[in-house]
Amino acid sequence: MYVITGITGQVGGAVARTLLGAGRPVRAIVRDARKGAAWAERGCDVALADLNDAAALASAFKGAQRRLCHGSADIRSSARFSRGAGALCRASNCA
Hints:
By secondary structure, the chain is of the alpha/beta class. The protein is built from four helices and four strands.
């Protein structure tokens, strides 16, 4: 299972389409269930999680063989970016 954050963006989406095209299992981590629905229709497993929620991320990462943690940084809020980076690190150690 490949788990991807930032799947609704250009880079994450391109990686997911490539993996799905190769028949690989993909889990999309999204904040918005409506955006996740489009990926579910393409064959992804979908997990809802915010990048600031280490517990939700750890749950979404379970069973992952590979993770692509990608997303755009909100440069207007370095504190939010720092919290998100910290949550990703904590979740990666938990999964």
